[in-house]
Amino acid sequence: MANLLEVNNLSISFTQYVQGLNRHDLKVISDLTIDVNESEIVAILGSSGSGKSLLAHSILGILPYNSHVKGEIKFRGNVLDQKLKEELRGKEICLIPQSVNFLDPLMKVSEQAIGECKNEKEHDTKKIKQREIFEKYGLDESVDDLYPFELSGGMARKVLLSTALINDPMLLIADEPTPGLDAKSVQETIEDIKKLKENGKGVLLITHEIDVALKTADRIAIFYSGYVIEINKVENFRNSENLLHPYTKVLIDALPRNGFNFAEGVQPLEVVKGCPYYENCPIRSDKCENNIPELVDHNGILIRCFNFEEVNDES
Ligand SMILES: Nc1ncnc2c1ncn2[C@@H]1O[C@H](COP(=O)(O)OP(=O)(O)OP(=O)(O)O)[C@@H](O)[C@H]1O
Ligand SMILES: [Mg+2]
Are residues 210 and 255 in the same domain? Predict the structure, then answer.
């Protein structure tokens, strides 16, 4: 399977001015490494504020002006600089944004979904596709001429989803595509994402909904406080004993079907010197307080922990 997207050691920080002139660097993504292959869906799970949308925006080249970025992002082996990001955006790489504010308030939704076209012929072809996709998501012909303010939240989400799918991208980055959708549309979304994969495309699926990730993804990456702490195969998420990082185990044990075993603790808001999970970790050692573990490969599982227990992969 060829590599489609490669993010290597990405760090993102913001310059903030606290109480007037005091300059402060807020680091929100640290040394992040993740990849997506052709015919693969990689899901990202992580709590609010852990840097998931910023990762998506950095791949698309739409980070806010006050951000500082280090590291490297490659698409099909080529380094994605700002120029290439702009060339590929909306074509080979499409985003389903988390916020419906990405819709242009002054443009009819069908025209937004169709996007820029080289000529009338391309417009006509895309118009047919737009109608098909809208129809599938229950947006009838009367919706085509509406402006974003006339849509309900769920309808707006469906328009964003359709806009990305019409372009049949090589890489889809879906940032929370399902909240607010009815059960049928969630199922349609999952099917459409899987269809991209079957056609050789890659998908980075950002979601809070673990079940959507489990039903869709090949691998799941866990974000914690701006770090990727584990990337594991989806089948290992069925039983927390097959997971390596103590936070990943806690996350899965907290699912209703696993008995709602909640753990105390919150993510650090400030950058810490050592492992970001140190304060809450049941298996921490002295080393973890002042040293950040690297993301290492353990039998194909990527793990950022000094003290994880090895699992013998029987599959
Ligand atoms: N322009 C900005 N200036 C300063 N800090 C920012 C800016 N944009 C985002 N952040 C901070 O970066 C962190 C990560 O934000 P991000 O939106 O990527 O989180 P997320 O994981 O997508 O959260 P959610 O699950 O709620 O969507 C947050 O703490 C946020 O406050
Ligand atoms: Mg987000």
Answer: no
- Supply φ then ψ for residue 291, to 5 degrees: -130, 140
User: Which residues, other chains included, contact 271 with Cβ-Cβ below 8 Å and sequence gap of 6+?
Assistant: 27, 30
**Same-domain pairing of 33 and 114:** yes
251, 142: one domain: no
Q: With a 6 A CB cut-off, is 105 part of the ligand 1 pocket? A: no
What predicted TM-score, i.e. pTM, was given to this entire model? 0.91
CA of 50 from ligand 2 middle (Å) equals 8
Domain boundary among 190, 217, 244: 217
Per-residue pLDDT of the chain (315 residues; tens, 9 = 90+): 789 999 999 999 998 777 767 787 888 899 999 999 999 999 999 888 889 999 999 999 999 988 999 999 999 999 999 999 999 999 999 999 999 899 999 999 999 999 888 899 999 999 999 999 999 999 999 999 999 999 998 899 999 999 999 988 999 999 999 888 888 888 989 999 999 999 999 999 999 888 889 999 999 999 998 899 999 999 999 888 889 999 999 888 877 666 666 666 666 666 678 999 998 899 999 999 999 999 999 989 999 999 987 765 544
Check which CATH number belongs to the domain holding 187 and give it. Answer: 3.40.50.300
Domain of 272 in residue numbering reads as 218-315
Cα 248 to the chain's mean position, in Å? 17
Which DSSP string corresponds to 207-236? -S-HHHHHHH-SEEEEEETTEEEEEEEGGG
**Closest atom of ligand 1 to CA, residue 56:** 18
Any ligand 1 atom below 6 A from CB of 96: no
